[in-house]
Every structure is written in structure tokens, then in C-alpha cells.
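To the wet lab folks,

You asked to see what we're planning to order before we commit. Fair enough. Below is the target structure as C-alpha cells, and below that is the sequence we designed to fit it. If anything looks off to you, flag it before the synthesis order goes out.
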């Protein structure tokens, strides 16, 4: 009867490679800091949302805070919520959510890719994208998220265009296009790098 296969034994690492590999844990405080930044964004979201609700019920103090935070200006000081103010506040809230999603991708995906496994296989709440995440996928997803955030900022600027100069509008549009081209270049480079090994193997 054949002896059962034994799992391969790992040879002990030399001190220097062990130290270099362990240096990845230096990134841990960075991800913990991003979690704190996420908490700040959550607090900011709820502050803005409470101000919006209070302004909807006629609180002029909350309305003034909203107008100041979104940079809305008018020849006549608003005394109540109007469609433009509501739209700008809602877009600002969406902006916070999208940046928060970006933080989650960086925290979870970056930790999984560069620090240590999270061992979430089989967990009902495991993000779908985390099962096949790597450095290249993470770069493409981050670029896509940045384009979404830039789109929200550009839309806010266009809605509030009367308070911006033509130069600001032009440069924001150019920067957004630059983000789009950068994301396309990253995705194309990633696709070329993925398919190049398969072609060379034939």
C-alpha cells in the first residue's frame, strides 16, 4: 500500500528575506488611517444630510450652511430650498458615497493584494470583485472610480456654471477628459500585459 503523500515542507527563510517580506506590515497603519478617513466621510455625509432635512423644514440657518458648503451664489439670497440647491447637495452626497467606495476598494483590495489574505472565501458578504482582485485589476477599478468622482464634480460645476469662469469650466472639462484617457490607457496596457504571455506560450 502506497504511503500517503505528505505536504511539502517549506524551507526556513533566511533572516534578510524574512525581514523584507515582513516589511509589508508597515502598510497596516496606512490602511487603518484610511479607515479613520472613511469615518470622517461618514460623519460629513450625515451632517450635510441633516442640514438638507432641516432646510426642507424651513430652517434658514441650515440653508445658509448648505449654500456655503456647495458654493452656490445668486443675486438674490435664497430664503428656501430650490431645485438647484437640492440637486447640488444631492450630488455632493453622491460624491461622498463614491469617494467612500473608492476608500473601501483601496483599503480592502490593497490590504488583500499587498499585505495579507482576508480569508473571506465562502463569506456571504464577500465583495464579488475581491475574488479576482490583483494589482492590475485594482488599478483599473480605481481609475474607473476616479472617473465617476470626476464626472460628479463636473456635473456640479455645470449646474452651478454661473458662479464659475469660462477658464475654470474649460480646465475642469480638460482634466476630466485626461482622466478618461488615462483610464483607457491603463485598461489597454493591462489587457496587453494579460494577453502577451498567452501569445508567447504558443
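Sequence we intend to order:
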Amino acid at each position: 500500500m502506497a504511503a500517503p503523500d505528505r505536504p511539502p515542507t517549506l524551507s526556513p527563510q533566511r533572516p534578510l528575506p524574512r525581514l523584507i517580506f515582513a516589511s509589508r506590515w508597515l502598510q497596516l497603519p496606512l490602511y487603518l488611517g484610511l479607515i479613520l478617513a472613511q469615518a470622517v466621510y461618514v460623519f460629513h455625509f450625515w451632517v450635510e444630510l441633516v442640514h438638507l432635512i432641516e432646510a426642507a423644514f424651513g430652517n434658514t440657518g441650515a440653508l445658509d450652511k448648505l449654500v456655503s458648503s456647495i458654493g452656490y451664489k445668486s443675486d438674490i439670497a435664497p430664503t428656501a430650498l430650490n431645485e438647484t440647491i437640492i440637486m447640488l447637495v444631492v450630488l455632493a452626497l453622491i460624491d461622498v458615497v463614491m469617494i467612500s467606495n473608492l476608500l473601501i476598494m483601496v483599503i480592502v483590495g490593497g490590504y488583500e493584494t499587498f499585505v495579507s489574505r482576508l480569508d473571506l472565501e465562502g463569506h456571504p458578504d464577500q465583495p464579488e470583485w475581491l475574488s479576482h482582485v490583483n494589482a492590475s485589476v485594482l488599478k483599473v477599478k480605481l481609475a474607473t472610480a476616479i472617473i465617476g468622482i470626476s464626472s460628479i464634480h463636473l456635473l456640479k460645476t455645470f449646474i452651478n456654471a454661473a458662479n464659475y469662469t469660462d477658464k475654470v469650466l474649460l480646465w475642469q472639462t480638460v482634466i476630466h477628459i485626461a482622466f478618461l484617457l488615462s483610464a483607457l490607457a491603463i485598461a489597454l496596457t493591462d489587457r496587453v500585459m494579460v494577453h502577451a504571455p498567452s501569445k508567447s506560450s504558443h
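Structural context that might help your review: The chain has a mean pLDDT of 81. Helices lie at 15-22, 28-56, 60-70, 83-114, 135-159, 166-200.

Thanks,
Computational group
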